[in-house]
Amino acid sequence: MTSKRFLALAGSAGMFILPASAFAQSAGVSESIGQTSQSQGARIPRKVTRERRLDVNLGVVATYDTNVARANKSVASASGLTPEDFYFAPVAAVDISLPFGRSDAYLNGSASYLSHVRNTRLDGEQISLAGGVSTSLARCTAGVDGDVGRSRTNIANLQALGAGIRNFETTYSIGASASCGGVVGLQPFGQFYYTQGRNSNPIRAVSDYNTYTYGAGISYIQPSIGEIGIIGSIEDTRYPERGGAGATLGLKSFPTRSIGAYYTRDVTRFFKATVRLNYTAVDTITNNGFKGLTGEASLRIAPSERVNFQLSAFRATRPNLAYNVDYTLGTGVTFDTQVAVTPRLSLNGRYEYTHSRNYISSPLVINPLLNNDTHDVSGEASYKLGVRFALSLGMGYSTRSANSTLYEYNAFRTYLALRSAF
Description:
Strand 17 and strand 18 form a beta hairpin. The protein has helices at about 5-10, 20-25, 75-80; strands at about 55-65, 85-100, 105-115, 125-135, 140-150, 170-180, 185-200, 210-220, 225-240, 255-270, 270-280, 290-300, 305-320, 325-340, 345-360, 370-385, 390-400, 410-420. It has an 18-stranded antiparallel β-barrel. By secondary structure, the protein is mainly β. It is globular, with a radius of gyration of 22 Å.
């Protein structure tokens, strides 16, 4: 087959904006960690783009899962759940970029609603969306953007067993940024973001938080080498529902300071790379502060139209919506690969690893989740039924180890997904 035929079939009348495995995962059980952004503090400035995209994917995913509770058998039984279940989810995914005049607007992400056959208490929505508007004025660029994330808390993470107990975690973030400078050369920038995290269950309201992020930096842009920058931030996190003296219910507030550097390069649609390294300090009134390295990295390589590799990693501190947790140090690595075997048939693989360490000062937490490691591996085959439709069959396996067996689990899943591109 010629590469022209690959491009013609993939590029006309709509695009599949997510790898099939990621599309199915957006309709799967989420291991929520309480925040949508994986960046530490301030965000790398976004540039106004002239690229126009209007891609929408709609579909439905049917899944059989051996452990929808994401908990061990004793925890699932105490919670009144049957581990094995079928669930169905309509899914919508968007990737929209609309330039107009000297401005642009964007929206990307996905939303789904899970409906279970047996454990209807686990039904609910999963949302991960980000959007914003930017405009160029003379030599300056200003923008407003935000994001929202929502998912159900896995039963073992609730630390409150019993039939009927459930919780949804929701985070909202909105902010403004500005930068000034030419297309080439130095560009100073500043930004402010407000992030709100909320639990739906009153039992967990004690861990609702507000974070105020102040960031600034300076970058040097040279198209032949990319963008290099220095970036710093101060984050002020507050738990408004934690009253009383000391840290009986956990820290009531704490500041986080971060300073670092980044490099990003976007050569063509076949290569894009970003790396960022920070020194971060979390100051607390207790002895559970943190000082060390954080950062993020991403790499996308497409050596041909048929093959695509994506690698991403992060290490960041963040507030946590879990019961009486002060904050979490999270580390993660994700690897995705796509191989087009024929113009219609593609194979996809994905591996994701996350490690979380929870910092807890409250003496009220019994048998807390302090450390856990989660591995998830999946693979699938996707077949295009035409220009707009694709059918995917896949399977995956998840496992978590932790400081207590109360939080450990294994789960196998297999799914069938039908989606359309517009």
